[in-house]
Design a protein that fits this description.
ten-stranded mixed beta sheet, 27% strand, single chain, UDP N-Acetylglucosamine Acyltransferase, domain 1, alpha/beta, Spore Coat Polysaccharide Biosynthesis Protein SpsA, Chain A
Length: 386
């Protein structure tokens, strides 16, 4: 690791992964040499993967390693032919078909730019047979007096061939080349491929995604069977959705959201760091932040649970069977009791508890009666207000 090393280290802190520091970013060959010097491999055969590959097929990697061992090469490069190779390193071969070198886009002349076979940035190599050559090449490259001096792993191919050390190629199947991310276009292509793969899995598990093209689902999302996801819905990482739910259109479920079974989240509803228990309905134009909503509660159109006061975010509890009226605002922290009603347009101020079964209206919200009362009753603290 080099650039943003701390961020990566923090992210992988709980993984059984050894990180090696590249204090100066002096190219990919120098990075590999740092890794070999600081952490000796447990096996002779080592696989190297460029960091701009966000998704890899373990089966394909296994085939690359097997090909490397079968041909007894010291160094094996994964490659494939693509329709639009611009921006990628080209595989240059001799007349007999053996690889001669890898030429990067910026170094390619017109004839090389016409080559459609490209380097995928995945390599297998025999460490005992290549490390000394790698070490010498890096020292030579970095001895050049230049402010931009670097040593690249792609140059090692030509150096090994010149030294008589066997180098081979392995042709990958499928469209893995589109998963290289070198620019925003590559990022968009890779994201689309990963979306298709994730959504295909969810569809196979019994989730209905009405229009996969206009739906965005991030990784680590769990969705139960027989749930329907409508178009223009965004589901962020780590969200959990139960079975027989209905989400969208234009719903936005953010991190920390848990949707239990048989919940309906409708058009233009945003939910963040909240739990909606079984049977909840939030069907129109609502925002729920840091809220726990009990079973069978109803969230009316335009209702807002305001979780942030400009300094801190606070939680709200809405009880089972509660009815939150259209256009109402609940300012956290607040506790709405079971079977309580918050009238349309009411504002429940922070710290106020709404008793179970009661009805509150107005700004600020005031209790007017209990649901089981046959005659409305004005509370003691409301006498004189009417």
């Amino acid at each position: 690791v080099g650039h943003d090393a701390k961020k990566l280290s923090d992210h992988l802190a709980d993984q059984d992964i050894c990180l090696v520091q590249q204090n100066e970013q002096l190219g990919t060959a120098h990075a590999l040499l740092c890794a070999l010097d600081q952490q000796q491999p447990r096996h002779d055969d080592v696989m190297v993967v460029n960091g701009d590959l966000p998704d890899l097929d373990p089966g394909e990697l296994g085939l690359l390693m097997q090909s490397h061992r079968d041909c007894d090469a010291a160094f094996t490069i994964s490659c494939c032919e693509v329709e639009h190779p611009a921006g990628m390193g080209r595989i240059v071969r001799c007349s007999e078909g053996a690889i001669e070198r890898i030429v990067e886009q910026e170094d390619a002349d017109t004839s090389v730019q016409e080559i459609q076979e490209v380097n995928l940035g995945i390599y297998s190599f025999d460490a005992p047979r290549t490390q000394s050559t790698l070490d010498e090449m890096v020292k030579t490259d970095l001895a050049v007096e230049s402010p931009s001096k670097e040593s690249y792993l792609t140059r090692l191919v030509e150096v090994l061939i010149d030294a008589g050390i066997p180098v081979s190629t392995w042709s990958a199947a499928g469209n893995q080349q589109f998963l290289q991310v070198n620019d925003r276009l590559g990022l968009a292509r890779a994201s689309r491929v990963l979306q298709d793969r994730l959504q295909s899995y969810l569809l196979s598990e019994g989730v209905t995604i009405v229009d996969p093209v206009t739906t965005w689902i991030e990784f680590d999302v769990e969705i139960g069977s027989d749930t329907i996801i409508h178009p223009q819905t965004v589901i962020r990482r780590g969200v959990k959705i139960g079975s027989q739910c209905e989400i969208g259109h234009f719903a936005h479920l953010r991190e920390g959201t848990v949707i239990e079974d048989n919940v309906k989240v409708g058009d233009f509803v945003e939910i963040k760091d909240s739990t909606l228990e079984q049977g909840v309905r939030a069907k129109h134009l609502a925002y729920l932040g840091n809220a726990t909503v009990g079973e069978n509660a109803n969230i009316g159109a335009g209702a807002v649970v305001a979780n942030y006061d400009g300094k801190v975010k606070s939680p709200t509890r809405i009880g089972s069977g509660a009815f939150i009226g259209s256009g109402s605002v609940i300012v956290a922290p607040a506790n709405i009791g079971d079977d309580a009603t918050v009238g349309a347009g009411a504002v429940v101020p922070p710290g106020q508890d709404v008793e179970p079964g009661s009805t509150v209206v107005g700004v600020p919200a005031r209790k007017i009666k209990r649901k089981d009362d046959s005659i409305p009753e004005i509370c003691e603290d409301e006498r004189g207000i009417r």
